User: Fold these one by one.
Assistant:
Number 1:
Amino acid sequence: MSRKVHVEKTVTINKSAAELYQFWRDFENLPYFMKHLKSVHVINNRQSHWIEDAPFGTSVEWDAEIINEQENQLIAWASMAGSEIKHSGSVQFQPATGERGTAVKVKLEYESPAGIIGEAIAKLFGEEPEQQIGDDLHRFKQLMETGEIATTEGQSSGR
Amino acid sequence: MKAVCWHGANDVRVDTVPDPKILNPRDAILKITSTAICGSDLHLYNGYIPTMQSGDILGHEFMGEVVELGREVKNLQIGDRVVVPFTISCGGCFFCQRDLWSLCDNTNPNAWMAEKLYGHSPSGLFGYSHMLGGYAGGQAEYVRVPFADVGPMKIPAELSDEQVLFLTDIFPTGYMAAENCDIQPGDTVAVWGCGPVGQFCIKSAYMLGAERVIAIDRIPERLQMAKEQCHAEIINYEEVDAGEALKEMTGGRGPDACIDAVGMEAHGMGLDAFYDQAKQAVRLETDRPTALRQVLLACRKGGHVSIPGVYGGFLDKVPMGAAMNKGLTLKMGQTHVHRYLKPLLEHVQRGDIDPSFVITHRLPLEEAPKGYEIFKHKKDSCIKIVLKP
């Protein structure tokens, strides 16, 4: 049974569309805030190789290609033919009213075949893919607005 | 290091835990010199704030000396003596830039938890549940301070710890509560709750021009402090009906502004108070809004209601009809501490106020469990405890 995950999320970031676009356009930056993304290697101006962490110590890899882009407004990409999973995504940057930053809208779709990779992808997104993408976007916002990602990982406790 | 850890309702312990480390470029590590137990820590102690985990380090009122700095903190130096706001703020988001520091968008790593309950997430707080960030608190020998280039304020050497410690929370909280009353010349302000925040509400209301302040509580020594230290008129609600007394004292009109400095664990006299105790005990209600109900009924038509008392969840039988039909203005929120640090420090420096008047107990950090217990039960005339690591 193939599995399909489709998520849409929007967050407003207190930076210009141009700054946000430039950061995102370099796909090698994405793993900084996309938690499950292990690495993205940019092959050329349109193509890149993505490696996503998956449960059970495995990973899923695919090649992606930019299929549409409008400078400072939109980037859309999709996995290339023959990939193990079908993935596509887009990000739109729209200036908010009254110079209140930029609304960033992300759409992601994963379609995976039956079998172990399908299972892995399903596990990866768990019950709440919306929340995971929401968290990724929160981290993108934190990174852009503050230069770092708020964390408590590694702090002291009495546990 | 030694740290005060939460292990469940009515169970705090002084544990030995690893020293904090710099985790992000804008972090600092402080060696704590003074730290206090807040009334809102009792909501944690009593088990009414969700998303606490056993082992969490408590404490959000603390100050100390900078011992380590992340590479992006340029405005502080090792050895600086600072107070730290209990709200953690980034300084760069929509809300920080509008002086709404406790609503910072970027400091709660667990924003999704708060979003589920509140729709949106407020800022992260020190030592106040995972829903509000899960940050280790400052009832400890050392603490990690995130966004240390924004929050901490340096303190001149001539001021003692006790004079400035409460700039971290309760003084600004009382002050903002009074500011939210929009006090006009001639105004009478009523304050429910004479705990430390209530005391600062009274002092602040006078500082902002109130003509009369009336304080309501049931604990004799707290009423006495309100009267003698803060010059409030007082009502003991166990002796008289507070609503009637307020009407009588204000010529039937009611106070121009009312402050609920009690929050979610109110006590009361009527059937409604009993009802709330029972419902909260079996978790049918998260908060006991006994004080808030009285506030809404007592406030004069067109008056201001200010709520510094902490509410966490859902309230039963709040007389919204009174609030609406009397045209009340309601203002509330976690304190925007950063906004008040400098102006209130100046008040302390000028000698307008010495915030140390609320302190009744000074204990070594090791005695924190005893401190929580006497503070909770208001034993030994306890009003405010300062812990010394």
Number 2:
Amino acid sequence: MKRHLLSAADLSRDDAELVLRTAEELRSLADRPIKKLPALRGRTVVNLFFEDSTRTRISFEAAAKRLSADVINFAAKGSSLSKGESLKDTALTLEAMGADAIVVRHAASGAPHRLATAGWTGSSVINAGDGTHEHPTQALLDAFTMWRHLGALDGRRVAIVGDVLHSRVARSNALLLRTLGAEVTLVAPPTLLPVGVDGWNVETSYDVDSVLPKADVVMMLRVQGERMNASYFPTVREYSRRYGLDARRMAQLQDHTIVMHPGPMVRGMEITADVADSSRSVIVEQVTNGVAVRMAVLYLLLGGSEPAGTTERDAA
Amino acid sequence: MPTQPAPPDATAPPDRRIPAPQGRTVLDPRDISRALTRISHEILERNKGATDLVLLGIPTGGVPLARRVAERISAVEGVEVPVGSLDVTMYRDDLRMRPARALLPTDIPPDGIDDKVVVLVDDVLYSGRTIRAALDAMNDVGRPRTVRLAVLVDRGHRDLPIRADFVGKNLPTSLAETVVVRLQEIDGADGVTIAADTISGGTTAGTDTVTDHPGEGR
């Protein structure tokens, strides 16, 4: 593995499978009386969140603490960032404090890459979501959830439905799922598919009803109104009717098909409440799996003298 | 150590294939079987029966050995003995000295280990560091009434004050030698060999996990 996890594309198939297998072992920890392992004792993990987050920050914090790391939470609100400090000065401060890993979320696509490669810090940088670019640990926990339900992902069909344009989850999932051998179809209105999507090695469709019956996994995405600077569809009601997952559409799915959502959900918009609460829905399980997957990533990056399975290619 | 399953020994009869590509065979399959049978009886004698016994194998080699001991105990006593596995990777004292390692399965029997008589089972006892790590790992799982240690081979050279309660074979070795334990469940055949340390790549020198089973994915 490389020293940083910035993109799902940083993971080879071997790396990704190692993370999934490690997460599987770590998941059993939740059933034990003492939910703690000593692997990262004395290591410091900084959660650097420039953008609001509930799930991801808490998930990373729980993961680091269960591995006995010291955790420093750093939210943009209430820090010197709101006084105008730059990313660089923040990074230098964290470096001076001796952080071993920086988990960063930022509204600007590419901020984690800058942090990792500008020479400001010697820490491992883990991308916890940057703008509309990538969210690799979400893709790993999604793949882990699929893998637990469906076994090996080779040839499995995954439909990702919704606001693909603004979704870092969709991009990371597409990259990782292709690495793991799954077939990915992105379903969205033409306005919400990104330019250059033909280079992603995935299929695209505008018609959700033609895709659902063949899918093994349906992943619904939230419409990210906060990132929209223009009108991408006529009305919420029309979007919901054409691209939302309701009980009628759910009835078209194969028996084994699971329904996923990275959260936060807007019930009644992209997914109806009865679908979100149905037995096909693995949305709550995704959150549980998130902790195990993030523990796996932290352990494999920080647990040894260097990341697991380091090759000369990675070191270069 | 071998990275490929060894070719069968051509001179041995088919029912006694000894997979020893290099080195000297010190335990053949029948020796291993007899040693495990004796260990099983010793465990029962010491514990005065199978009451409260839990066998925990240390992956990878210890896990099939623990299962075999459990089979023998249940054949003698007519009761099932809980068997599990205990991964010690995160508790190793050299965790920080090498690249992060893949975890191995930890599988604690459903009734847990609290107030039980836990017998740790491993293939080779060497420095004792793996067993120290196992004691730490167990501390996070529960509080057994007693912990005992069973090993197939004790090759000496302890770094820590640790000893085995049940030993299949005491094997005097020099530090320059490598002990390789091969087991049917993992390597396709049973056998313990000892060789000059030319095939190990030097990665086993400081630990007592002398075998590295290539077939085990996790």
